[in-house]
Every structure is written in C-alpha cells, then in structure tokens.
Write a structure and sequence with these properties.
This protein has 230 residues and is mostly helical. It is 72% helix and 4% strand.
Amino acid sequence: MNLNKATLSEQIYEILRNDILTSRFLPGEKLTLKSLQERFGVSSTPVRDALTRLSDEGLAVYDSNIGVKVIRLSEADLRELYQFMGDLDSLAILYAAKYKNQAILHNKLKENIEKTSLIFTCDREGRTLSQEEILSWKELSDNFHLIFYDFCENNRLTRAAKQQRSQLTIYSNLYETALPCQLAIERFHISIYQAYQDGNYDLAAKQMKEHLEESLTFALDQASGTFHIL
C-alpha cells in the first residue's frame, strides 16, 4: 500500500479508524502490530502512534495479555452510551431551535428525509438495496442527527457528541444493514422531522430520546445475535 511518508501515522490512523467503524474489524478483535506492519509496509513507530490515537479516541483498548484490540462494550456501557447520546441529540435539537434562519435547517432536514425515502423506494419495488445504497443510507442516517449539531451553535456540545459518536457508530453499523432496523429508524426520523417542522421542539427532542432508546435495543440484540423490533 502506497502511503505518504510525511504523514504515515495520520494515514494509518484514518484507515484503521474507518476499518473499525465499518466493521472490517469487529468489537473485541485483536490488532496485531506485526500484521499491521506487514499490511502497510512500515516500521512499528507509525503503527504504534496510530493505535495510540485509536485508544485515546475510545475505539481500541490496550490489553496487557493480548495487546491492542477493538473496543467491545458491555451491556452497561451500551446503555450508558445510548442514553447519553439521546440526551445530547435532544439538547442539540433544542439549541438548534434557537437558530435564526430556521428555513435553512428545515430544508436540510427535508432533503435528508427525501433522499432516505428515495433509497427505500427501490426496496419497496422489490429490488434489494445494493451495498452502495446501504452505505448511502447509513450516511444519511448519521447526517440526520448531525444536522442539528450543525445549527446548534454550541461547540462544546458538538465536541462532546463527536467524542461519543465513534463508539456508537461501531454498533450502529452492525445493525443498520438490517432492513427492519432501517425502516424503524426511518420512521423515527420522519416523526422527529415532522415535529420539528411543526415547531414542536420539545416533542422532537422527546422523540429523539425514544429513537436512541429503540436503537439501544438493536445494539443489544446485535451483541446477543438476535433482533427484536419494537
């Protein structure tokens, strides 16, 4: 693999981060220094630096017995994470509601919902979604939440959410490939959008919390190997 030697550590970090978030490396999987050196064709230093950054971000952990492995969250960890993200996302809605030019925000949400619905039209016509369409849907799903942060005008809230969202993405990428989960998520996004569009910001925030509570169920089911759609 050809890498810019001036930024080896940065590039390796970005590649490994993407591998973790897209489930190329699964929760609990070991990241061996030797195999990564062979993969990237580099010395141990940039690989160690990249692994340290992943550890600092909460995507990997050092285990004294086996080395570095992808983070695996316990049930208690998942409950805390999804509850906290529900609180942060809800707060982002309430902050975004104070943004002066609401028309811009509304248009962003509308565009997101319309693009998501367009992707699902293919499935409703009897055609299975392609891998590219699934990836596009997952990006739209994430962006629905991020839109509120883009307009919340609170950098501390945005940074706090960014720090937590990486761990959540590891698990959401596992269950968001399942059509029942996708449809359930879409229903919540539409409901939140409609409440926000109507100016009922408290209801939109409440529904966002409920949305994350349901998503927690998907994450727990994924961890146990089953799916339970509410």
